[in-house]
Amino acid sequence: MFKFMLCLIAIFLLVSCTNNEDVQEEATQESVTVIDEASPVSVYFAIRENFDADRWQNFITISVDADDIITAISFDSISQLANSSRRHVAQLDSFQNLFEYDFHEQAYTLESSLIGTSRNDLADALLAAYTGDSVDFNINEFADLAHIALASAPVEQGLYVDGIYSSMLHTPDASLNYFVYLFVTNGHIQAVHFNAFNPDDSLKYDVFTASTIDEEITQWRYQAELFEKSLLTTQDPLAFTFCEDGFTADIPGFNINVTPFINLVTEALSQNPITNQ
Description:
By secondary structure, the chain is an alpha+beta fold. Strand 4 and strand 5 form a beta hairpin. The chain has a four-stranded antiparallel sheet, with helices on one face. The chain folds into two domains: 41-150, Alpha-Beta Complex (Sufe protein. Chain: A); 163-269, Sufe protein. Chain: A. Helix 2 crosses helix 3. The protein has helices at residues 2-31, 86-92, 98-114, 122-129, 139-150, 215-234, 259-269; strands at 41-47, 56-65, 70-79, 163-169, 177-185, 188-198, 203-205.
């Protein structure tokens, strides 16, 4: 009888321990949450269609997390030559570019104050941040672009690494050498500019300095602008088709050899950016 009681006690203890282990295992499984991936972030972007009087094209990039909280925001401008951003110029030499430096400092201060703000409260936060004379740049432009960006669908990351790209076409037998600048942000080509210079005197033939432009260069710049606009749409220089003589029907009004433009852009994008934005 005594042995029988000992057996019952042993069985009871064994069952109790097993049940406790099961309960502890269930409790452990219920209390541990494993997050396999980071909270998704959506990127919103807006850019002005035209350049302002100072030849800058304003744009804004806003990152918003799954809780609609702003995690990053950047307000900047692209030069009309596509070879710099306003914020980058400001940091190159703050003494030579004092206005751009002030713009950079004030934009940075404003952006920093907006981090952690709900996207729904951004307009009110901008209004509260504006003190009348503490910001020299047009804060209404900042607010307007932010509204346009957040009212649009999030942008998908494009094909390219952000930065400024450049390439030059060396033509020893020609009077001019041609080159291109491309400005990429969020992986997309946002600005492109073709230009030319005389290798003998390094004189740049710029569409904005009419005194140095003859009729041939004017016509070339017009054709270059047609290609630039088309490239902003296609985002791929290899998307253009052309005949053996180099002429393409893909760009309305374009009537010169397209292959130098394609080659310049392809070469530029095949290299690392000369400046990271």
